[in-house]
Amino acid sequence: MNIIMFFLVGLLVHVVFFISIFDIYFTSPLVHGMTPQHVPLPPPAKRLVLFVADGLRADSLFKPDINGTSRAPYIRSIIKERGTWGVSHTRVPTESRPGHVALIAGFYEDVSAVAKGWKENPVEFDSVFNESRHTWCWGSPDILPMFAKGATGDHVYTYTYPAAMEDFASTDASKLDTWVFDEVKAFMNSARGNQTLLSKLHEEKNVFFLHLLGLDTNGHAHRPMSKEYLENIGLVDEGVAEMVSVFEEFYGYDGKTAYVFTADHGMTNWGSHGASHPSETLTPLVAWGAGLQTAQRASTTQNYNDDYLKGGFNKSPLMSSLIGVPIPLNSVGVLPLQYLNNSLHFKAESMYANAIQILEQFKVKVTQKKETTLSFLFTPYHKINTSEKRLNWNKKNQDLKVFLTLFLQIRHCETLIAQALEGLSYYHTYDRFFLGSSVVLGFIGWTSYVVLVILKTHASLRKPPTSVGLVVSFFLLLQSSPFTYYIYCLLPVPVWYFVVSFFYRAMLTLGLIILGLWPFVSGLYRKAKMLQVLLCVYVLASTHSSLQMKQGLPLFSQLVSWATLGSSFFVPLLSSTRLFHRLLSILLSLICVYLVLSTGYEALFPPVLSWLMFVWINMEQEAVDTQNLYSIDFAENIDLTRIRQLRLDDIRRSYFFSLFHSFDPASVYCFLTVFNPFIMGGLLMWKVLIPFIIVMCTFESIQVSTRLSSRSLFLIVLVISDLMALHFFFLVKDYGSWLDIGTSISHYVIVMSMTIFLMLLSVMTHILTSKRILIGQKMKMHFK
Question: Which pTM value belongs to this model?
Answer without folding.
Answer: 0.68
